[in-house]
Amino acid sequence: MVVPADVRAIIGQSIFKVPTGHTDEHRAATVAAPIIVELQDRIRTARQTGKRLELVTAESLAERYRSERLTDRETSEITRITDVINFVLTAHGHSWADHAKQVRNAGYDVHSALRHLPGGETAAEAADLITGHATPLLTYIDQWKPDAGLKPRPLDQATSSIKQFDKAVGKSIEQIESKDVQKWIDGLIAADSETGLHSKTVNRKLGEIRNYWTWMQSHQIVPDDRNPFAGRRVVNPTSRRKGKEALRQRFATEDVVRCWTAAEERADAPLAAAIKIAAFSGARIEGVSQLQVTDIRVDPTSGIRFMRMDDKTAAGDRFVPVHSEIGHLLDNLIKDASNDGYLIYSKRCSATLGNMPASQGVCWSAQVHGISSSIRF
After folding, report:
1. Of 125, 151, 290, 317, which one has the greatest count of Cβ atoms within 10 A?
2. Contact 333, 273 (CB under 8 A)
3. Domains (range + CATH), the chain
């Protein structure tokens, strides 16, 4: 049977070839009938879901098993021993008869018996995945994202932290223990190294992973009383704790002026504008670089002109009155704004990223964060 072109990439084949085991045409046709139905079902499933039939069946079994486990443990065990094991055996080219011969060798443990079959480790892992005994940590990350309560940039940062943890620890949801989390934290802090992360950074990463874990608890994916990320110790080593004099100090007022003046002298008008707006608004440089023409408004009641600042979190969003020192600057930026509406324009970002206005603010933040080292005064 030829696999239709629109589902070949999903199914992974261009043609189905299944032997009937018969040379007689009539007997072969009888055997082929249910095979054809099953193959047509695979094609239909691929079109409807964009997934292979085996994957859809596995996901359905996993959902059913998880639901039964919460309401009726005895029923869930029957499902595991019959439907799950049968599906895994068929998917990996084994029969019940093959499996039954190994049950005694495995001490009558039907799951362990899978490992005694040729290539049985893969079959056993598949059964573990379906029954939730070896669920990859990243399994639900796409479902979590809309409920994370984070804006795009912090969400990308949180997703990166979760993936970093998963890569470092390499354990399933069911296998992650408190000691694994603490070992990961200690590795980031790296007490014996001068290049370890600060406790604030580690706590931020930990909070992002807790967000994901709490979401899984709320959806009964993990038990409410199990949280290996709670109560972890995150402390900077004594050798790396900064005294009062070593802490980062703010720029002196005259130095801020010298910063935008230096940018103007080297004909970098966008950078000079970004520094000046930040200086007279108190905004983060990311917020300044993402300002658009539509963010400069006038309050209809008071007549006060203001900027709508879009910060990293909802709590950081605010309306900042336009200082008289930058009113004329904003007028010029609005007049010269590009088609995408951004006030701060970077040729470097445009050339690098192409027509990607949503990324422009991120590129600008990377460019202007190096101000203290790139501008000498």
Report:
1. 290
2. yes
3. 5-130 (no CATH), 137-240 (1.10.150), 253-374 (no CATH)
